[in-house]
Write a structure and sequence with these properties.
The structure holds two protein chains of two kinds.
Chain A (H helix, E strand, L loop, with lengths): L1 H15 L17 H9 L2 H19 L7 H12 L8
Chain B lengths: L30 E2 L9 E6 L2 E6 L1 H10 L3 H8 L6 E3 L2 H4 L8 E5 L13 H20 L2 E3 L7 E4 L2 E4 L5 E3 L9 H18 L4 H6 L6 H7 L10 H14 L7 H6 L4 H17 L12 H4 L4 H15 L4 E7 L5 H7 L2 E8 L2 H13 L6 E5 L27 E4 L3 H7 L4 H10 L3 E7 L4 H7 L11 H11 E9 L4 E8 L4
Parallel strand pairs in B: 10-11, 10-13, 11-12, 13-14
Antiparallel strand pairs in B: 1-2, 2-3, 3-5, 4-5, 6-9, 7-8, 14-16, 15-16
Classes of the chains: A mainly alpha, B alpha/beta.
Chain lengths: ~90, ~500
């Protein structure tokens, strides 16, 4: 289905923005769900598009080396790559 | 926090276990609400029939900001939020221990759960939640969770009970409760509206609601075109799966300028989506029973007069109408009772009762609930006490069982002695109708099953009733095919 494919592509590209970006203190007892939080950008209408644009731009800057990701996030990413893919609670 | 607060009459049994020593006043005189444990910033307990809530430092600060907010004052005044005030712990003789403050809430007459609500009730509870979100956001606050259990009812009026859920909205924060809103409000409604599936067993089976993965599994390709499915179901599930075990993206969102305008738009769109949802397949066998009942008008009036006379004997605190259908007799009971819980297994009949209550000027005294008595809501959740069975939430002092016994004994195969014994165990007075074998409704029930119901006779019924109750009145109905009784609990029963 065309609508599904295009939507999936958009989601996939949007979700790429968040790889390696992270880390601020969580204050709620409830887990908001990472995917659900990202989705809220899509659900935010025009304001959401602006945020998405900004996130793409940050991503672009960091890819060309003009902007650096947060250290903590970068370290987390390195650590994740170095670790074998096993269940973290085992 | 998603606790609910039961009404427990004096003398009834306390819950088997509590929410931990930290939630009980230091003198031990309170009774903790076992469902109030998820948020460490507060704890609900009961004392002398009143409802209190301890607050942490942070929750107390939030409360003080909240009570100054104009939206909160307005919504409280309009009855959308449970009446709440700060209480003086010393004046009440309550030790705070590690807690910073104390609130007292008005009592909800009878606690109910989303798996007992009709579609219209769940929809109205969802719309109330979205309304509170909208108004809180306009004042710089937000609801930190979206549990459907935080909405309770005063008759047919939804009331938000979890006051400390309101928090100041921090810059860059997303709506933390969005996923929970989907799981406990939106998906159940979509399930009924788009697939014609009863969401009640799903909600009863999963205390945290319906996960996006389950919802996605029941959606067909055609459903992708239905409002809200692509984003709220498919996209949410895809993103959840993509980020399972992933990091916290709040920082990235905040840095990119995520602000409340995005949440406001989501809430606005969700409001439009939920408003449009209507249940599919809305015709059930009993839906128009009060127009096609098996009584002639004169006989129906005789039955009503009997119920009215019995109910008028005294003022009742809590009445149950079991097998209430569309509530003809609930309304009679409500003339003489503070509160009536009208239960029926047919959700459409209860929906009829709910919508009629909403349209009436006095809808605060009859609570309609979808309950199949042969498979009623159990004690469940953490330690089996987080959500409670019917009797644990408040025992009735008057119970109507009209045109019910034949369904209990013949349809549900529950022995007559067992049913009468259960009623007696509630300690209630009863108005109960025995539907005889010659009645056409019983004939229909027996048409396609083996008649194994030797106990189903008027003599056995009367003897069992007399063994457990004091029979105060009896009258034949429908030319003797049915008999109606008023009986009061025996002393010491």
């Amino acid at each position: 289905m065309r609508v599904k494919i295009s939507s999936s592509l958009h989601l996939a590209t949007l979700s790429l923005l968040f790889v390696g970006m992270s880390a601020s203190g969580a204050h709620a007892y409830l887990d908001a769900g990472t995917g659900s939080m990202i989705l809220q950008v899509l659900l935010g209408g025009i304001a959401g598009l602006l945020i998405a644009g900004k996130l793409y731009w940050y991503r672009f800057l960091s890819l060309v080396g003009i902007r650096r990701e947060q250290g903590q996030a970068g370290e987390a990413e390195d650590e994740r790559k170095a670790r074998p893919q096993i269940r973290p609670d085992r | 926090m998603n606790e609910a607060r039961p009404q427990r009459p004096p003398g009834s049994a306390p819950p088997a276990s509590g929410g931990g020593a930290s939630s009980v006043p230091s003198d031990g005189a309170g009774e903790p609400e076992p469902g109030s444990y998820r948020d460490r910033n507060g704890a609900v307990f009961y004392r002398d029939g009143r409802v209190f809530r301890f607050l942490s430092n942070r929750a107390l600060e939030n409360w003080r900001q909240l009570q100054q907010a104009s939206f909160f004052k307005r919504l409280s005044r309009e009855g959308h939020i449970v009446e709440t005030r700060e209480a003086d712990p010393e004046g009440k003789g309550i030790g705070l221990d590690r807690w910073a403050g104390l609130l007292e809430h008005a009592r909800i007459p009878y606690v109910s759960y989303p798996y007992e609500w009709t579609f219209g009730m769940l929809k109205d509870a969802a719309l109330l939640h979205l309304k509170l979100m909208r108004e809180a956001l306009a004042d710089g606050m937000i609801l930190k969770d979206s549990s459907a259990y935080n909405v309770q009812w005063e008759g047919v009026h939804p009331v938000f009970i979890d006051v400390p859920s309101f928090e100041p909205l921090r810059q860059g924060e997303p709506w933390v409760g969005y996923r929970q809103f989907c799981e406990l409000f939106l998906y159940p409604l979509m399930l009924a509206a788009y697939k014609g599936i009863d969401y009640r067993p799903w909600l009863r089976g999963q205390i945290d609601g319906i996960p996006s993965g389950q919802m996605r599994a029941v959606m067909s390709k055609r459903d992708l075109l239905r409002p809200g499915v692509l984003l709220h179901v498919m996209a949410q599930d895809a993103l959840q799966k993509r980020y399972t075990g992933g990091g916290n993206v709040r920082g990235a969102l905040a840095e990119a300028g995520f602000d409340k305008a995005l949440i406001e738009r989501n809430v606005e769109k969700l409001t439009a989506l939920v408003t449009r949802l209507e249940p599919a397949g809305t015709k059930t066998t009993w839906a128009d029973y009060d127009r096609t009942h098996s009584y002639e008008e004169a006989e129906l009036e005789k039955k009503k007069a009997f119920v009215r006379k019995a109910a008028a004997r005294r003022r009742w605190r809590l009445a149950w109408d079991l097998g209430a259908n569309t509530g003809t007799f609930s309304r009679i009971a409500a003339e003489h009772a503070d509160y009536v819980v009208a239960m029926d297994g047919d959700w459409m009949a209860i929906e009829h009762l709910y919508q009629r209550g909403k349209a009436s000027s006095d809808g605060r005294r009859i609570l309609p609930l979808v309950v199949n008595l042969a498979d009623a809501s159990p004690n469940q959740g953490w330690r089996g006490v987080e959500r409670k069975g019917l009797a644990e939430r408040g025992r009735p002092d008057l119970t109507l069982c009209l045109a019910l016994v034949h369904h209990i004994v013949i349809s549900a195969n529950i022995p007559l002695a067992d049913f009468i014994g259960w009623l007696a165990g509630l300690g209630t007075a009863v108005v109960i109708e025995f539907v005889g074998r010659e009645d056409e409704m019983v004939q229909t029930l027996l048409a396609n099953r083996e008649d194994q119901y030797d106990d189903y006779t008027l003599q056995t019924f009367r003897a069992l009733l007399a063994a457990h109750f004091e029979i105060r009145a009896e009258a034949p109905l429908k030319g003797g095919k049915r008999h109606i009784f008023f009986a009061e609990a025996k002393k010491g029963e």
